[in-house]
Structures are given as C-alpha cells and as structure tokens.
Recover the amino acids of this structure.
C-alpha cells in the first residue's frame, strides 16, 4: 500500500521535472545508509497513526512489524548516513536532488564478537529481497575496464578508440526518496555489476579448470559485492578503484543519456545539471565526464573542461592522509587507460600553469601536481577540476585552507567555502524519539518539524519545572528501552538510574575510544582503592565497527571487551560502573541508543574529526556533549555556551604545533601516576587476567607479554593522537560531568538548552546552503 502511494508520486515528480526542465542535482557517494523505510514512509505520508490503529484491529503490532525490515545497508558510518540525511532532506525541501551509489550485495560486513574479537561476516541484507527497489534493466549502461586506446585522425579531429576492454553491465536499482508531507519523490539509484554477456568457458570446464570457467562472472560481480574491501591486498586495492570508476561511469553515462533524451541535445547542460562528489572516492568523475564530452559528444578540450569544471563540486570530509586517496600510476593506467590519458593531460596543463606562477619553486609544483612520484593524487584532481570545494565544519574548512590544501587555496580562494554538516531531525528526533517530539510540539507547536530553527523557542521552557520534569521522564523511559535492548542483545543488566555515557561511532585511533577506556580503568582503580568513593553510577556504552584490515582498531574493541568483562564481574564495584559493547552498530540501533544518551562522547583529537554528526544527533535528543574543540563540537559550543557542554583537551593550533615537534608522550606517562597505572595495566597482566589491582599493588612493571603490547608501545613511543596528553584534562572534565549530573535541575536545563539550539544542526540548513550557494537550485513544488 505504501509503495503504491509512493510510486504514484514518484512518477508524477519525474514527469513534472521533465516538463519544467528543472535543474537536477546528482549526489555521487560510495555509500548511503537510508535505514528502514517503512515506518519512515508512514510518517512522511502522515498515515502512521491510521495504519497503526487499523493493524491493531487485525491483531498486528506495527512496532513488531517494522522490526522485520532489514533496510538498505549500502554504507558503513557517518559518510553514508550523511548522504541519506541529505537525500531525505532535499525531498522534504522539494529540491530535485538524486543520489547515486552501488548496490552492495553484502553491504560493509556484519560484525560478530567472538571472545572479544571482531569477526566479519557477510551482511546478507538482500536475502529476502528489497521491496522498495525497482530494477531497470532497460536503463543499463556499459562500463569498460582495461584494454588499449588507439588514435585516428577523422577529418580535423583526433579520435580516441578504446579496444580489447572488459565490458561490465551496470544495472540500476532505483529507490524512492520520499519528501515529508509533500509530493516530492526523488531517486536514489544503486548500480549493480553484471556480466555484459553470459560467458561460460566450456572448454576450461571440460578440462577440469572450473575456476577459469566462471572467472569473468566472478570478477564482474565482485564489483558490487562488498563496500570497502580490505585494501591491504593488491587485488582488493584494484577492486576499490574498479568500484569507484564503475559508480562514476555508470552514473555519468546515465545522467547524460537522460539529459539528451529530455532535451534533445547536450546543449546548456551546465545550466541544467549539477554533479556533487561526496569525498574523494568519486573524484574520477572529473576525467570521466571529460571522456564522455570529448569522445562521445565531440567537444574540444577547452569546452569540455569548461563544462566539467562548472558542473562538478566537491566536499572534502577528512584531513587524514589515507582518505585523501592516491593510486599507483601503473594500476590506474592499466585499468583505466583512456581515463589516465585525460588525467595526464589535465596534470600537464595544470603543471604548466603552476610553473608560470612559480617559476623558481619546482618543489611546490611537484607537491601540487596531480601525478607525481608514480601516484595519481585524487584530492589534487578534485580541487583542480571542480568549481567548489567545501569543508564540513568551520574549523575543518580553515584546516583545509591553512594546512591540507593551503597551496590550492592560494590559487583558488574563490572555490573554498564551508557548509557545516547536519542531520535530519525528522528521523533522529521525530521518528526515533516520538515522546520527546510530542513534548516539543506541546510546548511550541509543530512548526519545528518543517522549520527546525524554530526549536529555539524552547529556550522559554528551559527553567519550566513541568517541562523539565516531563523531559526527565521521557529520557528515563528511553533508558529503560535501551536497557532492555542491551539485555536482549548482549545479556548484560544495566542500572537505568546510572548515567548513560555513550560513544557510538567507527572504531579508529583518532576517535579515541582508547582515551575513554583509560578513563574507565582509572575510575575502576579509584573505586577498588576506595570502595566508598562517592561517584554517580555510570554505564559506559560503546558500539562501532573497525575496518577489517585495521588491526589497531580491532585491538581496541578487544580491550573494551576485556575491561568490560573484568569490571562487570567484579562484585566490589556494586554496579557503580558497567561497560557495554553493542555489536553490529546500524541505523536501527542508533534510533534506540541515541534517545537514551545522557553524555555524548565526542572526544576525537582536535583537527582530526572534520565535523561529526553523532554529536548533532545526541544534542538533538538532549544529551550533553563531552568533547574536544574539534569539528562541529566548536559550533555546538558556540550555540549552547560553555556552561552547557564539557570541553577539554588540546586545541587545533596546539595539536598542529606539536606535530612540528616537541611532544614526548613518555614524559606525560611518567609525570602522572594515575595515567602511568592504567597504561601499565595494559601489559601488567591485569587486563589479560583480571588480577585485582589492589593485591597486585596496581603494578607498574610491564611484562611485555600482553596482546595489548602494541597499544602500550604506541602510547609511550608515538601517541599520534595525543591520548596521554589529553588524559588529565579528560578525567577532570568527567569529574565535572559527575558533579553536574547530581544537580538535576541544572542538568535538565542544560539538556533543554541543547535541544533548543539543535535546529542549526539540522540537515535542512546544510542542504539549503548547498542548494543556494553551490548547486544554484531552488525548491520545485510538485503539484
């Protein structure tokens, strides 16, 4: 029934876009995480209550029913969820924005924890099919890999002919992106890789070479099997590049084909199309669009470059070197011969212009080159080939301009801007926390649902005792729900009257789950040494996945589990601390976890988290942030004021200064006895055996025979992310959390203030900024 309603609107929206020749935006991202769509669609259609009541009369519980939906899981974390937030929001704002990605058969992976270790299993989210998607084989396109390129002079043109290539058929599966209480339905197009033709090597099979007989099909289907294959291996690195080009080529061919079909020619395409590349993964869109315009549409280089650079815009999401992708020249050239030729020419022309500008600075030219040191630098290509480059928080954008892309900013200052990320309040507040949404509407009306900036009206209620009492009751009921979920999923009983202190995000060294664990160990030690220590009971909740090849992050998960096992089974602690790790974090779990959060852990090393979006989701649900001056934390602090957030740690400038030299982690370790104790416990046998820190004398001597020796060694001799440096400041901030939480009136006021100021961090604001400043589009109301 729901799909039927959506499909009617979907067809009408497409018809109207075509009739009015509306400018379209295409948002290319390697991942999207839409989450479950049934309940969200019922809310957007405004029929949830009616359906709930009708199903109840039939003896069907809607809440139980929606739990059966898997939801498309073609993403991993913040990047994929941000893309989905933007798609939902664009439709809600009646903006013609469509997503393009890959239909990964097994998603990222299903996380299972065995004896504390992460084990990756296929995430078979398509085992029951996907009722929302529409397969469109008639819209399939051919993507070409490998082969050779020869040239011919035809008339006055030099023509490039691609031969002996491997052809892959890209088949689109379209998902509707439904607007909120309007008639807009946009499209999320997911591409599936299929053999161009049925090829079965009968001769090889007859000779017993079964693998060779199906080799082509297997290599093709691998393209759309798994998101982010472990790139420690050459074959998987090659597969990643294949995936990126597959997404880009299929999407751009489809976009151009559709444009020509609706408009009759390629003329004025830059006035009617905007292509946005979400992070560096789809940057190969730049040379691919050049290829299509020159090789298939007959454009000359200058005209193709003008169109390409005016159509494409780029969002950078990170300052981490590994995410500013580079590719070995040999791999790139062999897999994408024509694309490499175009990149080579872009690089030649760009370097020629640089040499004119910096005739005596060859090193600068080398640094800025797109091809250098046998590598193709995708971030450099992104800046050169797009008309807009944006960061995703004010501080992140400044870091790009001052450090990461400083040389490019000197040349192209007009390209750089900031659009701070946002999250959709309609999913993470209205849907995920309906009781809180009702309370807000009761207080200020429902305009905030359509205009999230109206949440600021709640400022009038932050000291209203009746409002705050209801706010507390809602938080408590959400904590009870999460406690039940924890018991059902991992078998741990948690105290619903304890502080729910939550860190849920991708496991990575810079996100510093390790700092959180060291504080937990320190708190445990203090309670063991003084069983009467006056501390508020606290439940520390973790969830998140480590990349399959990221050994250090997987060790952190093991450490969390090990510490949890020791603390949760120690009768002396008497429920003052509990530690929980919830496996296989996903959007459906986030919608249970986030509304229950009271302390939001946003503790990345300053300068490393581009923005963060978890901080916004927790804030929107009334949690108080404990965090560094990093990413959007700074803007949250500016909104709510220092009295309503717990800030600690090094600043961005201090971190940058230390990277120039002068930081000695071993000195931090030596001068802080409590820090020394917890670091030594990683290898003293305590963490591996659970030996009582009192009877051990809280050992300081290291046996160097621990499975956490890598972590211990890294902290003392490297500590790239300043865990030891920020430890003391973090502990003091946590002590302030403990003290503040006891003052219930103050805490609830802080919670209400955070909710009131969260409207700025809605994706409504972010998408509106992209639309007005970068994509140059306006709302198109579907009648």
């Amino acid at each position: 029934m729901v799909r039927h309603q959506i499909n009617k609107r979907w067809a009408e929206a497409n018809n109207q876009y075509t009739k009015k020749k509306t400018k379209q935006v295409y948002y290319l991202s390697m991942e999207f995480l839409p989450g479950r769509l049934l309940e969200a669609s019922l809310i957007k259609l405004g029929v949830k209550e009616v359906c709930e009541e009708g199903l109840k009369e039939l003896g069907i519980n809607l809440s139980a029913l929606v739990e059966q939906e898997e939801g498309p899981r073609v993403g991993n974390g913040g990047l994929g969820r941000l893309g989905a937030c933007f798609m939902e929001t664009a439709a809600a704002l009646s903006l013609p924005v469509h997503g393009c990605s890959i239909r990964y058969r097994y998603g990222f992976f299903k996380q299972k924890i065995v004896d504390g270790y992460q084990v990756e299993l296929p995430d078979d989210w398509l085992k029951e099919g996907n009722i929302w998607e529409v397969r469109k084989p008639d819209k399939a396109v051919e993507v070409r890999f490998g082969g050779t390129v020869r040239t011919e002079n035809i008339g006055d043109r030099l023509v490039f002919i691609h031969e002996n290539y491997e052809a892959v058929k890209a088949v689109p599966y379209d998902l509707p992106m439904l607007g909120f209480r309007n008639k807009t339905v946009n499209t999320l197009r997911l591409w599936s890789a299929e053999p161009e033709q049925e090829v079965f090597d009968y001769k090889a099979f007859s000779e017993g070479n079964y693998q060779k007989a199906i080799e082509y099909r297997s290599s093709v289907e691998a393209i759309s099997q798994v998101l982010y294959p472990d790139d420690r291996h050459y074959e998987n690195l090659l597969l990643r590049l294949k995936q990126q080009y597959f997404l880009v080529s299929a999407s751009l061919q489809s976009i151009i084909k559709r444009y020509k079909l609706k408009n009759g020619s390629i003329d004025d395409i830059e006035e009617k199309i905007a292509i946005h590349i979400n992070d560096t993964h789809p940057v190969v869109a730049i040379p691919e669009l050049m290829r299509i315009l020159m090789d298939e549409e007959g454009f000359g280089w200058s005209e193709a470059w003008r169109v390409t650079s005016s159509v494409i815009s780029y969002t950078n999401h990170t300052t981490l070197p590994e995410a500013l992708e580079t590719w070995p020249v040999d791999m790139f050239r062999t897999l994408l011969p024509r694309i490499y030729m175009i990149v080579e020419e872009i690089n030649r022309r760009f370097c020629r212009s640089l040499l004119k500008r910096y005739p005596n600075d060859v090193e600068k030219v080398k640094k800025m080159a797109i091809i250098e040191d046998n590598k193709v630098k995708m971030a450099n290509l992104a800046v050169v080939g797009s008309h807009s480059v944006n960061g995703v928080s004010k501080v992140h954008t400044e870091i790009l301009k001052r450090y990461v892309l400083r040389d490019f900013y000197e040349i192209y200052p007009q390209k750089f801007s900031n659009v701070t990320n946002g999250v959709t309040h309609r999913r993470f507040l209205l849907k995920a926390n309906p009781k809180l949404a009702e309370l807000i509407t009761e207080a200020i009306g429902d305009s905030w649902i359509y205009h999230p900036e109206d949440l600021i009206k709640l400022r009038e209620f932050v000291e209203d005792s009746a409002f705050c009492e209801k706010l507390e009751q809602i938080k408590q009921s959400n904590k009870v729900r999460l406690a039940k979920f924890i018991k059902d999923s991992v078998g741990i009983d948690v105290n619903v009257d304890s502080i729910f202190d939550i860190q849920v995000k991708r496991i990575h060294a810079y996100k510093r789950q390790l700092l959180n664990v060291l504080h937990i160990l320190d708190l445990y030690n203090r309670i063991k040494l003084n069983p009467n220590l006056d501390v508020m009971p606290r439940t520390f909740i973790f969830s998140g996945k480590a990349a399959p090849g990221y050994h250090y992050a997987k060790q952190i998960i093991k450490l969390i589990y090990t510490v949890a096992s020791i603390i949760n089974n120690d009768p002396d602690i008497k429920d003052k601390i509990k530690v929980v790790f919830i496996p296989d974090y996903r959007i459906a779990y986030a919608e249970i976890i986030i509304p229950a959060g009271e302390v939001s852990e946003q503790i990345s090393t300053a300068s490393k988290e581009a923005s963060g979006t978890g901080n916004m989701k927790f804030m929107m649900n009334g949690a108080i942030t404990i965090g560094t001056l990093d990413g959007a934390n700074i803007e949250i602090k500016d909104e709510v004021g220092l009295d309503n957030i717990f800030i600690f740690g090094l600043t961005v400038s201090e971190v940058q200064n230390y990277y120039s030299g002068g930081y000695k982690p071993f000195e931090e370790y030596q001068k802080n006895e409590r820090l020394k104790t917890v670091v030594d416990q990683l290898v003293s046998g305590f963490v591996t055996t659970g030996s009582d820190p009192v009877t051990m004398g809280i050992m300081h001597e290291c046996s160097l025979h621990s499975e956490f020796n890598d972590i211990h060694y890294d902290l003392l001799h490297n500590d790239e992310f300043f865990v030891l440096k920020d430890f003391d400041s973090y502990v003091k901030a946590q002590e302030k959390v403990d003290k503040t939480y006891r003052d219930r009136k103050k805490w609830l006021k802080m919670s209400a203030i955070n909710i009131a100021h969260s409207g700025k961090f809605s994706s409504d604001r972010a998408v509106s900024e992209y639309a007005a400043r970068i994509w140059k589009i306006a709302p198109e109301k579907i009648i």
